[in-house]
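Bug #77: duplicate submission created two jobs. Keeping one. Sequence:
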Amino acid sequence: MKIKSFFNRILLLIIIAFAGFIFWLGWEQLELSENTYAAVFTKTSGWKDKIISTDGFNWSFEKVIPTNYTIHKFKIDSIKFSYSENGELPSAKLYSEFTAIPPENFSYNYSLVGSFKFDPNYLLSMLKDGSFDQESFIQWQTEKTLEIQNVLKTFILTKIKDNQLLTLEGAASSLLIDKYIFLDFSEISINMNSPDMQLYTLSKNRYIQNFEAQSKADEKYLVEALKQKNDEQLRLNLLKQYGEVFTKYPIMIEYLKIDQGKLLDRASLDDFISSQNQK
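Kept job's structure:
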């Protein structure tokens, strides 16, 4: 009896150990560290619909089957970004020189700070469509960071030109939230030294008015100069024709002596040439 009882205890321990081993094999969170999320692919059922995280408890029998279970782990941390930019409004130097207004009135500079974190709820769908994989996730986040900075740069410059700076931070946050639904953004902070848009607009309008007035004056001058040039060319052509007529018809000189009061113009030349040809 003692021997049988001993073996029963050994068998029970073996069963408990085996059960513990199976439990350990099927425990999905066991491989995950803090802020790590995972998508699971199994040969028996493909991609699992649920993303695994360190929250709660998940156990899968498919994980126990050798070579059947593949876990794709992603460390998802908050990514900070910051940059600064300075510049001047379009044609600022031109308007400044025209109006003698210091150019710093038409310049701007700002600094921006923000952060985002990938939303793990989109992890499975983006894995399926090939946006990234376990190896390229960090590179993908780096590219998105640069892309976000460029989007904000273009957005802020547009707002500066349109003089819409009162709600700039809120508008920037709304833009990013709408454009990148798979990212969670913290509050965007923008420190802005903006240009004097009223003074810029006034200088621009004055320059344009002066340019238009000068263009009209130049156009009038060119028209008059062209007309004068055409008149001079007509006179030169007439003098040239005089020379040809005097050469071909020497009698023309006598004709002019007889009728000294007659106006010598193109019509007179044509009449004289016609009369000579009829002879």
